[in-house]
Design goal:
Chain A is of the alpha/beta class. Chain A is built from 11 helices and 15 strands. The longest helix of chain B has about 35 residues. The chains are: A alpha/beta, B mainly alpha. Chains A and B meet through helix 2, helix 3, helix 4 and helix 6 of A and helix 1, helix 5 and helix 6 of B.
Chain lengths: ~325, ~300
């Protein structure tokens, strides 16, 4: 089975602005989150995958075909949900979704039949004959999703699908996307800057920063590969025992940063570190360990470590950035 | 969630070129939903109804009072059933057609360009050429609805109310003349309108520019023609032969259109150059703009 998409040394410029800078990726089928700040190059990457934007340099293959040569044919296998509205005022829901199907090569009758079915499943049955300008933001997002799904694409490209939704609408959309991501044989690339959304829907992630891939891989691997951090508190702390305990921790391989008060510190340790060592060293240096709290490592932590926003996190965190990696299915 | 079609169906996808029709049909639906369109279309039908009635009246007179019919036909050359009858009818439809297109332009394509709808089309299994073909087809069909189609109906009426077999046998080139002139109007005016809409999607500036092209320039052309004519040249001769008349684009189309009915008018070459230039420049403007919007969207 070919990769979902393979990108080699991809660069793209908008005039003098370098939007993508030497991106190389090989991504297998599945649900993939594409995360990055505004201007990181997510939307440009999606448009290049879709064949809408002709890239400046490099090669991009989707389902094994070169997008520069087979863009139109590939779009028949891809469903794209744009971030911006992209709806045509004056049409009603059925016409809009049906038109999407026809533009993807479906016969009119079949396109309309699927439009009816999809709008019913997405909770827009009552509104399907209503003009699009009368739809709420949440309804527009669901409508756009229906238009994306009508031709049963093998790959869904979703650009900020939860953008502009209220909390309930966002929860419902995420549940919907999660169920779509679980369909066998189908893939989903979900672009967002909301890291929680990625964790909810996807099992793999690509983190982009300033036009480059900062990291990519399965979420489990990303989280497992992170160094562990602990907050420590101890009693019997005076100047000498305090320094002795910190020195012992450093000698054992932990990166330690003292807290503002005596008897507090933050320690970053490697994955082979045993928690018993904290107690053992405490006993050796005659302090009583009273608190040991592991810091939670989530995608946000990984992201912030990778994109170099250390100021937002506690100090003493460093992680080598990966220029190229594989996303496993 | 399961998606319809994912379980059972094997679909043979239609060719991407066939997507031009859904695009055109949708654009026309949007225009048909405007009341203003029907008001203007009714106005366009007024002259058609007048011509239809006149042809019927002449046919009745021909049977009952042949001398009266001959007298009227000699007075009204426009109703003699020749190519000029139908060409002049189509030219007379210009005013209302131009007004109709001015208001329909934004609905046909402007919304796609000003409200991000273009990405909806271009992210499907089509490219900009298919998209532009669909939109041009919609504009062309609107033009045909007010010019070509009524002219064909009048031609058929004229034949059916007279000596049917003889008329159609002798005058069949008129049928192709009407189709040819209709196609010329659809392509040339369609390209020009789509180019203007692409760069100027908002209705008010579009109507102003469109009005400038089809109202101000013809007036300017007539003023310059009369003012710059050579001494001794009649006003009528000047109107036929002055190169200033080339500023009137609808007149250029009329001059070129005469060729479809076997008539070569003065200024034919100049008019042909203007029409071809407008078409080529419009096509370039359309594709430059669509590419630009594709990258921006």
């Amino acid at each position: 089975m070919t990769s979902l998409f393979e990108i080699d040394s991809l660069s793209h410029r908008y005039g003098s602005v370098l939007a993508l800078d030497g991106v190389s990726l090989s991504v297998e089928h599945g649900a993939i989150g594409l995360v990055g700040q505004n201007g990181a190059g997510k939307s440009t990457l999606i448009k290049i995958l879709l064949g809408l934007v002709r890239h400046t340099d490099g090669t991009v293959r989707v389902f094994g075909s070169d997008v520069a040569k087979h863009g139109v044919g590939l779009r028949g296998r891809i469903g794209y949900m744009p971030e911006r509205e992209g709806v045509t005022p004056g049409l009603n829901g059925i016409e809009y979704v049906g038109l999407s199907g026809e533009l993807n090569g479906l016969p009119r009758k079949l396109a309309l039949r699927r439009a009816h079915e999809l709008l019913s499943r997405l909770g827009l049955e009552e509104a399907r004959y209503r003009r699009l300008e009368n739809y709420s933001a949440g309804m527009v997002q669901r409508l756009k999703l229906a238009a994306t799904l009508v031709h049963d694409p093998d790959l869904l490209l979703l650009d900020e699908p939860t953008s502009g939704l209220d909390p309930d609408g966002r929860t419902a959309m995420l549940a919907l996307l999660k169920s779509l991501a679980q369909r066998p044989g189908k893939s989903l690339l979900f672009s967002t800057h909301l890291l929680g959304d990625i964790e909810h829907v996807c099992r793999h992630a690509i983190i982009m920063e300033k036009g480059k891939v900062a990291a990519s891989g399965s979420l489990d691997e990303m989280l497992a590969g992170q160094e562990l951090a602990f907050s420590l508190r101890w009693k019997n702390g005076n100047e000498s025992t305090n320094d002795a305990y910190l020195a012992a921790l450093q000698q054992a391989g932990a990166e330690v940063s003292p807290g503002e008060e005596l008897g507090q510190a933050r320690a970053v340790v490697s994955s082979d570190w045993s928690n018993q060592q904290f107690f053992h060293l405490a006993k050796q240096t005659e302090v009583t360990l009273t608190g040991l709290e592991p810091e939670e490592v989530d995608l946000r932590t990984v992201y912030l470590r990778l994109v170099g926003m250390e100021a937002a996190l506690p100090p003493l965190i460093g992680l080598a950035k990966r220029a190229e990696s594989e996303v496993g299915a | 969630m399961s998606v319809p079609g994912s379980e059972d169906e094997t679909i043979i996808r239609r060719a991407a070129w066939l997507a031009a029709w859904p695009i055109a049909r949708t654009a026309m639906h949007l225009v048909f939903r405007r009341k203003l369109f029907w008001v203007l279309f009714a106005l366009a039908l007024l002259s058609f109804i007048f011509m239809f009635g006149a042809i019927y009246l002449l046919a009745t007179l021909r049977q009952k009072y042949p001398q009266v019919e001959q007298f009227i036909t000699s007075m009204l050359k426009d109703l003699d059933g020749s190519g000029t009858t139908f060409l002049n009818f189509m030219v007379a439809q210009s005013t209302v057609t131009i007004i109709l297109l001015a208001f329909a332009g934004s609905v046909l394509a402007g919304n796609d360009h000003s409200r991000g709808g273009l990405i909806f089309y271009l992210s499907r299994r089509i490219n900009v050429v298919h998209y532009a073909t669909g939109k041009l087809l919609a504009i062309g069909l609107l033009i045909c609805m007010t010019t070509t189609l009524p002219a064909l109906i009048l031609f058929i009426e004229y034949g059916l109310l007279g000596d049917t077999g003889k008329y159609f046998w002798e005058k069949y080139p008129i049928f192709f003349g009407i189709l040819g002139y209709g196609a010329l109007l659809s392509v040339a005016v369609g390209l020009l309108l789509f180019a203007l809409v692409s760069w100027m999607p908002k209705p008010v500036p579009l109507v102003m520019l469109w009005g400038g092209l089809f109202v101000f320039l013809p007036i300017l052309s007539q003023i310059l023609t009369v003012a710059m004519r050579e001494p001794g040249m009649s006003r009528r001769e000047a109107m036929d032969e002055s190169p200033w008349r080339l500023l009137d684009f609808w007149n250029d189309l009329y001059i070129v259109g005469n060729k479809f009915f076997g008539v070569e008018k003065p200024l034919f070459n100049g008019a042909a150059v203007v029409v071809c230039s407008v078409c080529i420049l419009s096509a370039i403007a359309i594709f430059v703009r669509l590419r630009q919007l594709q990258h921006q969207s």
